[in-house]
Amino acid sequence: MKQLLHTACALLCLAGSLVAKQTILIVVTNHDQIGSTDTPTGYYLSEVAHPWHVFTQAGYEVDFASPKGGFAPMDPKSFDLSDPINKTFWQNLDAVQRVVHTQALAKLDPENYAAIFFAGGHGAMWDFPGSKSVRKSIAQHYKNGGVIGAVCHGPAALVRVKIDGIPLVRGKKVAAFTNEEEAAVKLTDVMPFLLESKLRRLGAEFVKADNFQSKVAVAERLVTGQNPASATDTAKAVLELLN
Q1: Does the pLDDT value for residue 2 go beyond 50?
Q2: 22-242 falls under which CATH superfamily?
Q3: Taking the C-alpha atoms of 194, 195, 200 and 205 in order, what is their torsion angle to the nearest 10 degrees?
Q4: Are 151 and 120 a contacting pair, CB within 8 Å?
Q5: How far apart are CA 92 and CA 61, in angstroms?
Q6: Which helix (H) or strand (E) holds 201?
Q7: pTM of the model
Q8: pLDDT value at position 36?
């Protein structure tokens, strides 16, 4: 009888694990202001909506988290409902409630997710790099065979992540918002650092397309995209690794 109960419990645990692995976690920023300016920022809507659309269309559930949990601001410049995918996302009450009232990343077990995806938006440049929960979640998930995705300024989450003492990005092809793109939007001087330059200094093989064109880099189980135009392609590349 005890053996039967043990077997049943094991099967239930396995079933629970399989269900959990059908969920992808999207992480967004809590930061709402560009430097010392009065310019609002936050996550970039299409970098959340487009991956959400790709993942849910493929049958995955999507959870949302942030470094602190709670309210996640959206960059008002990104609120473009002429984009049909943005509109579909924004009209989905459950999705909007989840991204407005995020879970705290530190309270989540990375192993409950098939992949962890870091959305961009300039706010990510301020809170992703210094977040212990961001670093811990990425390192644990990656070391245990998980897939990490990040797009635009989302790769700021990677800059302090080390695996066995070595920067995660070292020797890997990585894409992110470029120095030229930062100059084009006239924010070079107010960024805490330039993401392209930082990733290069860490030993990443930085790859890029022309300004605001889609570019995705895949290196082992790390998938990164250059800019908002890359959001859909980055999410699709994550799915290819999962499948």
Answers
A1: no
A2: Class I glutamine amidotransferase (GATase) domain (3.40.50.880)
A3: -150
A4: yes
A5: 13
A6: helix 195-201
A7: 0.91
A8: 85
Dist CA 106 CA 186 (whole Å):
34
Domain parsing of the chain, residue ranges: 22-242
Backbone angles phi, psi at 189, to 5 degrees: -80, -15
* Whole-number Cα distances in Å, 97 to 79, 84, 103, 155: 16, 19, 11, 25
Give the closest residue to 134 by CA, choosing from 197, 216, 153, 198.
Answer: 153
Of residues 49, 31, 27, the one with CA closest to residue 39: 31
Structure-token pair, residue 196: 């392209």
Of 23, 192, 196, 224, nearest to 123 (Cα)?
192
CA distance 152 to 118: 9
CA distance readout (Å), 189 to 186, 194, 211:
8, 9, 18
Distance CA 99, CA 43 (A): 10
Rounded to an integer, the average pLDDT of 22-40 is 95
Burial of 23 (0-12, 13-18, 19+ CB in 10 A): middle
Query: Are 104 and 98 contacting, i.e. CB atoms less than 8 angstroms apart?
Result: no
